[in-house]
Structure prediction request, 143 residues.
Amino acid sequence: MKINIHILITYTFFTLFLCSFQHHDYTLASIPTDLKGTWKISSFSDLKKDTALHSLSISLIIDPEGICSGFLGCNNFRTTCKVRQDSISFSDIIRGRKFCFKEYMDLEDHYIMVLSKANRYYISKNMLFLFEGKKKLATFIKE
Prediction:
């Protein structure tokens, strides 16, 4: 049986990445209860309306240990987050490399940029707002 070398390399990389979480402390403190759970994107603050329909399936899942994952619109992603009071930061974001239509790939790049820039959050009425300083980047609704 012939094994595709790309699949083997990808599998090895993700296995090593997932195992690395067991050996490092990535969180500063426990994740607040109201931040834990699954969040669906409601809007990106600076996204054109013609691409907003593609954002309907974008999600962010935050677990109690600060491991974050979700769906970018075409690919899945995984990262960690650090939370202290109202500040939040996401570490390097690992994502799949399945290629889709350009609109989806552009949306994924935009979402990655939002998570990379986010440094503050606010929760109100089951809505999560991510900010870069005072600039609102994205709004999520809790599922």
